[in-house]
């Protein structure tokens, strides 16, 4: 039975919360001051502490910090009637597992306790991982299901989403390629008061400087050569809703200036038009690189950066949340089974261990493609190491030659040959599985058809 310490100077809350938790299988004790609560925690071994934020002798944050000194991995949940952004974020950053706002909703408290306990018992990688073994760490966004994970770092991200989503704050999302920045942006939109209106996502890297004005704000017929009819821009499409500008630093300085003017005035004009249109929109932007560093180096407008910088979310890379890898493996397996029409049951233990050891430079996007490929190649009910690409199944291939004392020129040649051969073998394996359908093979390998042809041609030349 899990033991919970409740610290609150409101005796009624202590009594009611204690009785509720006891009915649901917890053992509880109460303390009415911070000092007595900390002393009680020091004397006994509690699994979870629930503390009010405002106590007579100390704050909930003080209680949190003191308890963390006694037991660093203690689960602490803070109750607060002050749900401002700064307070809530500060609590989480200081080490709290979660926070609950008054008035308390019993089912919410129970759900948070359950999630906290589950997080202490992560999925083992020593036994085969099957789809039915993991149920937590998921979220539904616009009728699509996504995995969010259970790691502390990603839980903090989703706590921040809960805080900022109901506001109209602009948000900057930082994260490496493939970490799911658009999923985060969509989640913010779906949890906001604008969720009934459009969400429009734009990859700024695809917008040329010449057509940026038309793409973002639209144009009228005859505005330029080829403008044969009126066209709505992305901002007009997203009006009343949310616009997501991915890789914002790819916009030219000139386009940034036009964007700043639209944000300041909350009005826009189509290219070639004279009518001023009102704009009511929330803006979320994303970047691989720091916008602060970009404006300091002269690559991004400082005034535009400050317009966006009302709230910032940093998405952790997959290699920094390895405890979530079994969940994603399971999710991508289910997704791939449905897509390809297979019934692969799970992964051999060694596969999950290889996944956890791998560095994942392409993050979740790379992970998804590798699982899809493995499901396609799998000829049994469990995915084996043999279905994985060489960089995961046999990472030693890229290290063996480095340990042998050879002339550097020879070593480089051998490493290149090994890498090329492993890549070609992977390509041929996939081609055989899809009956040499090159379009399907290119899709599975996450490359285009031209690149696929070139790789095959180059390998054939090197061996002829």
3D architecture notes:
This protein has 464 residues and is of the alpha/beta class. Helices cover 45% and strands 14% of the residues. The protein has helices at 11-23, 34-43, 60-70, 85-93, 106-119, 152-164, 181-190, 212-217, 234-237, 253-265, 291-296, 302-308, 325-340, 349-357, 363-377, 390-393, 408-433, 438-445, 449-463, and strands at 3-7, 27-31, 48-52, 75-80, 98-101, 138-141, 144-147, 171-174, 199-203, 242-246, 267-268, 277-278, 282-287, 312-314, 346-347, 382-383. The strands form five sheets. It has a five-stranded parallel β-sheet, sandwiched between helices. It is flat and about 75 Å long. The termini are far apart.
Briefly summarize what is shown.
With 464 residues, this protein is α/β, with parallel strands linked by helices. The protein is built from 19 helices and 16 strands. About 6% of the residues have low confidence.
Major sheet: order of its strands?
Answer: 2-1-3-4-5
In the predicted model, the low-confidence regions spanning at least 5 consecutive residues are 122-127, 129-136, 398-413
Beta-strand proportion: 5-15%
Strand tally is: 16
Largest pleated sheet: 5 strands, parallel
Please report the number of helical segments.
Answer: 19
Describe the oligomeric state of these chains in a short phrase. single chain
Helix content: 40-55%
Mean pLDDT: 82
| Cα radius of gyration in angstroms | 27 Å
Q: Give the termini separation.
A: 70 Å
Structural class: alpha/beta
Overall morphology: flat
């Amino acid at each position: 039975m899990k033991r919970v310490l409740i610290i609150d100077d409101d005796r009624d809350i202590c009594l009611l919360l204690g009785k509720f938790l006891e009915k649901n299988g917890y053992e509880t004790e109460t303390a009415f001051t911070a000092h007595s609560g900390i002393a009680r925690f020091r004397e006994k071994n509690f699994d979870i502490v629930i503390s009010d934020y405002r106590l007579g002798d100390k704050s909930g944050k003080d209680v949190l910090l003191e308890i963390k000194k006694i037991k660093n991995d203690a689960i602490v949940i803070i109750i607060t009637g002050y749900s401002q952004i700064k307070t809530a974020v500060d609590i989480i950053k200081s080490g709290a597992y979660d926070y609950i706002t008054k008035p308390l909703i019993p089912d919410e408290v129970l759900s948070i306790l359950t999630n906290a306990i589950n997080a202490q018992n992560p999925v083992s990688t020593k036994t085969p991982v099957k789809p039915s073994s993991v149920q937590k760490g998921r979220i539904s966004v616009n009728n699509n299901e996504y995995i969010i994970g259970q790691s502390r770092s990603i839980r903090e991200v989703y706590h921040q989403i809960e805080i900022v989503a109901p506001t109209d704050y602009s948000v900057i999302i930082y994260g490496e390629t493939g970490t799911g920045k658009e999923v985060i942006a969509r989640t913010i939109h779906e949890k906001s008061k604008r969720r009934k209106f459009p969400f429009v996502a734009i990859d700024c890297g695809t917008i040329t400087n010449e057509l940026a004005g038309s793409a973002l704000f639209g144009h009228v017929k005859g505005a330029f050569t080829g403008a044969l009819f009126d066209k709505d821009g992305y901002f007009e499409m997203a009006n009343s809703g949310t616009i997501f500008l991915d890789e914002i630093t790819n916009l030219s300085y000139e386009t940034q200036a036009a964007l700043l003017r639209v944000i300041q005035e909350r009005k826009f004009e189509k290219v070639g038009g004279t009518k001023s249109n009102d704009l009511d929109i929330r803006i979320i932007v994303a970047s691989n690189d720091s916008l602060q560093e970009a404006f300091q180096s002269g690559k991004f407008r400082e005034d535009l950066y400050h317009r966006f910088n009302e709230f910032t979310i940093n998405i952790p890379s997959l290699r920094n949340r390895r405890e979530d890898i079994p969940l994603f493996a399971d999710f991508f397996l289910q997704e791939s089974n449905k897509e390809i029409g297979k019934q692969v049951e799970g992964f051999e233990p060694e596969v999950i261990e290889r996944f956890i050891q791998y560095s994942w430079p392409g993050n979740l996007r790379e992970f998804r493609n590798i699982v899809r490929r493995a499901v396609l190649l799998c000829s049994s009910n469990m995915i084996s190491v043999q279905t994985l690409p060489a960089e995961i199944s046999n990472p030693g291939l890229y290290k063996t030659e480095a340990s042998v004392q050879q002339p550097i020129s020879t070593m480089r040649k051998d490493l290149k040959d090994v890498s090329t051969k492993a890549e070609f073998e992977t390509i041929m394996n996939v081609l055989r599985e899809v009956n040499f359908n090159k379009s399907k093979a290119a899709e599975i390998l996450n490359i285009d058809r031209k690149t696929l042809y070139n790789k095959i041609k180059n390998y054939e030349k090197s061996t002829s």
